[in-house]
Amino acid sequence: MYALDWISRRRSRQTDSKKVSSTVWSLGFTSLFTDVSSEMVSSILPLYFIAQLGLTPVQFGFVDGLYQGVTALSRIASGFLADRWRRHKEMALLGYGLSALCKPAFLFTGRAWGAVAALIALDRTGKGIRTAPRDALISLYSDKENLGASFGVHRALDAVGAVIGPGAAFLILSHTRAAFDVVFVVSFCLAIIGLGILALFVNNRDQADPKRPAVIVSLKAAAHLLKDKPFFFLVMISGLLSLCTMSDSFIYLGMKQQLNMPAKFFPLLYLGTSLFYVFFSIPLGRLADQTSRFAVFVSGHVLLLGVYMAPFVLHGEWPPIFFFLALFGAYYAATDGVLMAQAADLMPVSLRASGLALLSTVINTANLLSSVIAGWLWNRGSAATSKVFMGSLVLAILVALIGRKVRTSHG
Questions:
Q1: CA distance linking residue 19 with residue 11, whole number of Å
Q2: What is the DSSP string of 16-85?
Q3: Which of 1-5, 91-95, 258-262 has the highest mean pLDDT?
Q4: pTM
């Protein structure tokens, strides 16, 4: 009887650990609608900048880097304030709302690329404000053993939005004359729906951690997180790998060049990647929970090396594109949510948003630099650019693996 009772209780705990909170699902649907909105715009921006506004590759590299890296200060500030005030939901609302308001503003910029860049900076500021508080809420509503699965569910729903967004942009570009204007208006409407879900179905949660002493939230305490060796190692390795990661926009532009792809099909590259991201996100999140989150994270970057082979394989041949998009989607599924899950497990509950903001800031600053470098290299061709990033990423992966081994051997 005792054995049967033990088995029953163990199965009950395993079942409970696999459950994902309704709040995580609500945050996922918020991200779904927001990502439909964002990806409708971001999937047309390379064409909008280069074909319509006439930017050079270097100018586009700067603006794309701005799109990736301008969130740095807003992430840190919002993460700290969300922890300090225990208002993760309200801070996330502010970020989502700011990004939503930027969408219709694109209608009034005309061909002034400086104004477009400023709007992008404001939109990314909104993303920076919302990301850390939102991820903190996901971690607070999840068990430690279930963090990877919870982030996997959220990222899968987020990726569904990233599938729908480029598809919607493709349909609009194919069937309307004032295509870009329609994209911006529809994008705004969808962003408002996501904002409503967050406002109505998500609440704050102040959760004590019995395994860690209480920490008074302050700038000093937030900065002190970097003195924790496991967290500092994770931040540094994540930043290094991000620096050696080419921007999505340049990867897709390279694919477009090699395939001689008509402009209206360009958003479908984003759609394909996101579709595979949806497929792999939850399984890889659960795999990371059951094995090693760091190993899955680094393995994702090994998959990215395969994506960098695209310019050397495609040459007008369409069938291989599906393989590369699958690799790209699997890379995102193995890195994005898995990294946040591992980081959340390394810090006290009271500083979750601050710690995740520090990590994201390092990553986005590295993305800014990598985009500028890619723009500078682009004049030498997509193949040459891929070679440089491929070589640097191989070195970064080796540093990550050796550093992990050394850190583990020294306790």
A1: 13
A2: HHH---HHHHHHHHHHHHHHHHHHHHHTTHHHIIIIIS---HHHHHHHHHHHHHTTHHHHHHHHHHHHHH
A3: 91-95
A4: 0.80
